[in-house]
Amino acid sequence: MRYRSGAVVVGLVAATILGFGAQPAQAACEPDKVATKYPGLAGKTLKVGLDPTLPPIMYRDPNNPSKIVGQDPDMIDAAMKCLGLKYELVGLDFGTLVPTLQAGQIQLIWSNIYYTPARAQAADFVIYATTGTAGIVKKGNPKGIKSIDDTCGTRAAPILGTVEDKGFQDASAKCVAAGKPAIQITPYPNAPATSRAIENDRADISMYDLVLVDQVVKSNPDKFERAFSFRTNIKIGVAVKKGNEELVNAVKEAITALQENGTQKALLQKNGMDPSLAIPVEVGR
To answer: Distances in Å between the alpha carbon of 268 and those of 5, 32, 56, 178, 197?
Structure first.
């Protein structure tokens, strides 16, 4: 009986060594292993493009305009330290980010950029968050806009090249099909430009990320208000130029580690954002 009992123990140990019933290994930050894990990236400085006009996600420090701060810069810094890589932030208008990535002048877009099938034709995405959408209007909502269905015949000021830009185009087509006036759509390069258009009566409404709209309204309560908001299935990711599989894998590993060790949640709380916006990491192509 003692022999048989020992055999059972040996069998259990062997099963453990072979991984039977073992838990999946957690992603880990291993900056000292970058040369082994990601030899094509080691020693290089990655240029990361972002639109620094969207507080609290990314904006220029009022006390030091050369410094870009906020949720995305914090995540970039944490991810690059996790990987052991150097980086440089490159401030750009949102509409120029994808062309600049395709031209090879930046290696990443980390700028609250939404994953869409159309964008996935130009870049691979490491998806890690979700969000909602909101409409922003002049204080008092003079046009009485309560949903996107109320925008027929109004003047819309989306940010150029965004999902909301396309959303206004689709809504305008529905207006015309229903025998209503089209939406007059004039895209602008960034969110502050759309706000100025509304403030100066060149536009009636803009529409973009819920977190950003709420921040603009909070900072300018006498000028703007939120007209409406809705949760979407929109996913936010880091965009990587097609074909750079090593960089996709590195970013995925880093964000997974930052989620598992609580860093992403802590940074969202630090920047006044909802930690529930984080979602499990996936690659979108």
So the answer is: 53, 27, 10, 42, 30
Let me know: does 59 contact 52? Beta carbons within 8 Å. yes
Range 133-232 has CATH code 3.40.190.10: yes
The per-residue pLDDT for 272 is: 87
* H/E stretch holding 60: strand 58-61
Strand-by-strand arrangement of the 58-61 sheet? 53-54, 58-61, 64-69
pTM to 2 decimals?
0.76
Residue with tokens 């009992």: 5
The domain 31-131+234-284 having CATH identifier 3.40.190.10: the answer here is yes
Q: Compute the distance between CA of residue 113 and CA of residue 125 in angstroms, rounded to an integer.
A: 9
Cβ pair 181, 153 in contact under 8 A: yes
What's the rounded Cα separation, in Å, for the pair 115 and 33? 30
Per the CB < 8 A criterion, the answer to whether 107 and 244 are in contact is yes
Same fold for the domain at 31-131+234-284 and the one at 133-232?
yes
Between the CA of residue 233 and those of 114, 129, 178, what are the distances in Å?
Answer: 10, 10, 26
The answer to whether 199 touches 126, Cβ cutoff 8 Å, is no
Q: How far apart are CA 123 and CA 239, in angstroms?
A: 6
For the stretch 74-99, what's the b/e string if a residue is b when 16 or more beta carbons lie within 10 angstroms of its beta carbon?
Answer: bbbebbbebbbbebebbbbbbbbbbe
- Contact between residue 204 and residue 135 where contact means Cβ atoms under 8 Å apart: no
List, for residues 97-124, the tens digit of each pLDDT value.
Answer: 999 999 999 999 999 999 999 999 999 9
Q: Of the candidates 82, 86, 81, 76, which has an alpha carbon nearest to the alpha carbon of residue 43?
A: 86
